[in-house]
């Protein structure tokens, strides 16, 4: 009986310890570091802008330059702190909006600036 109580206590402490230690340092699977979130947004803007410009008939060199410029601007406007962590679902939602709404209606850069899904909030410490 004592072994069972000790084992239950140990498992409870281990579970709480994982949440208290792994979530704040970003090891848990449902959080993304700010620098990785910024890169995902930048990559989505580049991909979407390149696709839009390719369909419009722009030369590939011009499309690549415009996409690079837009992705750089979008990455700085995304309000993402590289040192903080963000919910993976929120980052994925922003990327999805860039790939759909940005491609079909607004343009990738405008989507980052105007779409509320791309107004990411840093995730607090989970205990």
What does this structure look like?
The chain is mainly α and 127 residues long. The chain has one domain (2-118). It is built from five helices and two strands. It has helices spanning 2-22, 34-56, 60-77, 88-106, 108-114, and strands spanning 31-33, 85-87. A two-stranded antiparallel sheet has the order 1-2. Helix 2 (34-56) packs antiparallel against helix 3 (60-77). The mean pLDDT is 79.
Radius of gyration: 20 Å
Query: Which word captures the global form?
Result: elongated
Assembly category: single chain
Helix percent band: 55-70%
- Overall average residue pLDDT: 79
Q: What is the tally of beta strands?
A: 2
Strand residue percentage = under 5%
Low-pLDDT windows of residues: none
Strand order of the largest sheet: 1-2
Biggest sheet features = 2 strands, antiparallel
* Span of the ends, CA to CA: 29 Å
Number of domain modules: 1
Structural class: mainly alpha
Tally of helical runs? 5
- What sequence of helices (H) and strands (E) makes up the elements? HEHHEHH
């Amino acid at each position: 009986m004592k072994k069972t109580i000790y084992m239950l206590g140990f498992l409870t402490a281990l579970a709480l310890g994982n949440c208290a230690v792994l979530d704040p340092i970003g090891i848990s699977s449902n959080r993304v570091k700010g620098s990785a979130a910024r890169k995902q947004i930048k990559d989505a803007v580049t991909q979407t802008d390149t696709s839009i410009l390719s369909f419009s008939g722009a030369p590939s060199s011009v499309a690549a330059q415009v996409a690079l410029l837009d992705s750089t601007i979008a990455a700085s406007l995304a309000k993402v702190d590289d040192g903080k962590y963000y919910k993976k679902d929120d980052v994925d939602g922003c990327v999805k909006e860039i790939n759909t709404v940005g491609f079909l209606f607004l343009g990738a850069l405008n989507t980052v600036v105007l779409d509320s899904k791309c107004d990411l909030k840093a995730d607090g410490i989970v205990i």
